Amino acid sequence: MNAEGEAQARKLGTGLSRDYTIDLLISSPLERALETARPIAQAIGREIQVDEKISEIDVGDWLGQSFEELATRPEWKGFNRQRALSWAPGGETMMEVQNRAWRCVSRYISEEKSEVIAFVTHGDVIRCLLLLVLGISIDHIHRLEVSPGSVTEVVIGERHPVLRRMNYSY
Question: What global pTM score does this model have?
Answer without folding.
Answer: 0.91
